[in-house]
Amino acid sequence: MRLSQLEVGETGIVKEFTDLEMSVKLMEMGCLPGEEVRVSRIAPLGDPIAIHVSGYQLSLRKREASTIILQ
What we know:
71 residues; alpha+beta; SH3 type barrels; 5-stranded antiparallel sheet; 2 helices; transition metal ion binding; iron; Ferrous iron transport protein A
């Protein structure tokens, strides 16, 4: 399952990334393999989404969230 498929309030554990360039950016922001992520909010039109990871809130575009594979 991909992060972009979760609904508000659902959680998952980061397993891997599908985009190498994006993975470096996401890992610098604390979105590491093994970290739990929770979807906090989704914008009215579905993009961007706000996730809670590593103790803070991070906003991602749907395209960016779709590169994160969850366990």
